[in-house]
């Protein structure tokens, strides 16, 4: 399988799952737009490394996923610089853990904006070109929380449920245009996002770090193992392939059996 004629945007790809997806797509030959926050020098080193290791073009966009105009501009710039946007991966995500009555309003707004609204705005910008070319892959990183809930994660669960619904709607709208739309719902993957929520969970549940990892996080996964970012990325690559051309509107669980219970 090769993606050598394809160009991809992966949001939230300066670390974690997004970076693994960017690497996996580049390995298959796709040119990549990486996006996200972090140290400028580190990001530039990663961008250059992708080009050198995989022999593709890699560019960086610092578009703020809370700002629709910047999201639209990112897509337009990618179309100008690369020629097209064939693959859109909506991966940017943030988390905050707190009881509903204590949940900061600004954190609710930020999580909904980045985890859900940004995907809508990126789709709206990328879809016209995909429809015109009669080919496209729109993929989103949802979560096991697109299917089930956990306490103290009201904004995140709401956003991920919404992302699953957006996926289905877009799939139906694009079904006759050669554009597939799917989402992937990982369980707990050891990423900076998961690591950063441990202190909040410790405070909310009055637990130690070890108790949070073993009695809260991995309790949800029957395999008692973290999903790896590379495993998630491999599923994204498959969904970009011609073999997946008739897979659309689907939500793929990769969660160690979490949502089977």
- Uncertain ranges: none
Structural class: alpha/beta
CATH architecture designation: 3-Layer(aba) Sandwich
Task: Please estimate the helix content.
Answer: 40-55%
Which fold name is given in CATH as the topology? Rossmann fold
Main beta sheet, described? 7 strands, parallel
**Mean pLDDT across all residues, rounded?**
96
Shape: globular
Strand line-up in the sheet with most strands:
3-2-1-4-5-6-7
* The number of domains: 1
CATH homologous superfamily name?
NAD(P)-binding Rossmann-like Domain
Number of helix segments? Answer: 8
Helix-strand sequence:
EHEHEHEHEHEHHHE
What is the radius of gyration?
18 Å
How much strand content do the residues show? Answer: 5-15%
Terminal CA distance: 34 Å
**CATH C-level:** Alpha Beta
Strand tally is 7
How are the SSEs placed, and which strands pair?
Elements: E1 7-10, H1 16-27, E2 31-35, H2 40-54, E3 58-61, H3 68-82, E4 87-90, H4 105-133, E5 136-141, H5 154-173, E6 179-186, H6 192-205, H7 209-217, H8 229-240, E7 251-254
Quickly list its features.
alpha/beta; Rossmann fold; 48% helix; 13% strand; 7-stranded parallel sheet; 261 residues; single chain; 7 strands
């Amino acid at each position: 399988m090769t993606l050598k004629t394809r160009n991809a945007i992966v949001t939230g790809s300066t670390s974690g799952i997004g970076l693994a997806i960017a690497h996996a797509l580049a390995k298959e030959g796709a040119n990549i737009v990486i996006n996200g926050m972090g140290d400028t020098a580190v990001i530039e080193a990663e961008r250059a490394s992708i080009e050198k290791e995989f022999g593709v073009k890699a560019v960086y966009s610092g578009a703020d996923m809370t700002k629709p105009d910047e999201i639209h501009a990112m897509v337009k710039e990618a179309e100008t610089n690369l020629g097209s946007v064939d693959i859109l991966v909506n991966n940017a995500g943030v988390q905050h853990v707190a009881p509903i009555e204590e949940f900061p309003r600004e954190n609710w707004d930020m999580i909904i904006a980045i985890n859900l609204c940004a995907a809508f705005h990126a789709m709206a910008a990328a879809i016209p070109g995909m429809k015109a070319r009669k080919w496209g892959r729109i993929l989103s990183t949802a979560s096991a929380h697109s299917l089930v809930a956990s306490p103290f994660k009201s904004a995140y669960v709401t956003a991920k449920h919404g992302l699953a619904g957006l996926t289905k709607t877009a799939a139906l709208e694009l079904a006759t245009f050669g554009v597939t739309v799917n989402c992937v719902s990982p369980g707990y993957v050891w990423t900076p996002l998961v690591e950063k929520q441990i202190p909040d969970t410790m405070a909310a549940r009055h637990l130690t770090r070890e108790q949070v990892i073993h009695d809260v996080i991995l309790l949800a996964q029957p395999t008692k193992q973290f999903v790896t970012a590379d495993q998630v990325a491999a599923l994204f690559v498959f969904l970009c392939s011609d073999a997946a051309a008739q897979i659309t509107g689907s939500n793929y669980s990769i969660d160690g059996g979490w949502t089977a219970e």
